[in-house]
């Protein structure tokens, strides 16, 4: 069931099968997008290629655990439509593509952890992304989930599914919720 997905920090370094990775990118490719503009290409590296280079984009607190992942993906979004008009929904569409990627991974037993805390500026140079038309959004660590104990002690404490607000504080029929429902925390 796809809600069982969560974002681990314990990754095994074993390779992700190319067919699984292809299926995950294929799922991202089929994500819906505003005007079907499909504004969110991915750039990725595997252990066999230049993973170390991609890892330099991760901020130190994320690099600590992401270093073990055998695949690192960077998602960018094209900020304009083909006719030059700004696309205000580009990052929304990119989010849908990223979620499709992650959910397909879940179906295949491949874990993912999205991080937005990356060195965005460095991404343009490092990946040769044209900064005038694309926005570097986030990175995704991809791999098989490992046992909690492979992590340093402080990270072990974080290695569990995160809670969510109850449904009655998420979906409201008819109107915005009354003041008694606090959605700010
Ligand atoms: C846009 C975005 C940015 C995120 N950035 C980070 C990050 O920089 N570091 C991190 O450890 N997790 C990051 N996460 C993971 C979230 O903390 C995590 O998805 C969220 O708490 C829900 O937990 P779950 O994915 O385990 O269900 C990010 C997730 C998203 C969607």
UniProtKB/TrEMBL annotation:
Gene3D superfamilies: NADH Oxidase. Residues 4-55, 62-144 form the Nitroreductase domain. It comes from Labilithrix luteola. One of its GO terms (molecular function) is oxidoreductase activity. This is Oxygen-insensitive NADPH nitroreductase. Keywords: Oxidoreductase. SUPFAM superfamilies: FMN-dependent nitroreductase-like. InterPro entries: Nitroreductase, Nitroreductase-like. Pfam families: Nitroreductase. It comes from the Bacteria. Belongs to the nitroreductase family.
């Amino acid at each position: 069931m796809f809600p069982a997905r969560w974002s681990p920090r314990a990754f095994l370094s074993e390779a992700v099968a190319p067919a699984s990775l292809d299926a995950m990118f294929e799922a991202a490719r089929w994500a819906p997008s505003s005007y079907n503009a499909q504004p969110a290409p991915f750039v990725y590296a595997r252990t066999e290629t230049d993973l170390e280079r991609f890892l330099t984009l991760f901020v130190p607190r994320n690099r600590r655990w992401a270093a073990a992942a055998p695949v690192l993906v960077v998602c960018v979004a094209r900020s304009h439509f083909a006719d030059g008009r700004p696309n205000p929904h580009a990052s929304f569409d990119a989010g849908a593509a990223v979620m499709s990627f992650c959910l397909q991974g879940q179906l295949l037993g491949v874990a993912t952890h999205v991080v937005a805390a990356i060195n965005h500026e460095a991404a343009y140079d490092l990946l040769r992304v044209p900064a005038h038309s694309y926005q570097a959004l986030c990175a995704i660590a991809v791999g098989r989930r490992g046992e909690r104990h492979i992590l340093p002690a402080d990270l072990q404490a974080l290695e569990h599914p995160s809670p969510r607000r109850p449904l009655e504080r998420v979906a409201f029929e008819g109107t915005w919720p009354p003041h008694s429902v606090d959605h700010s925390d």
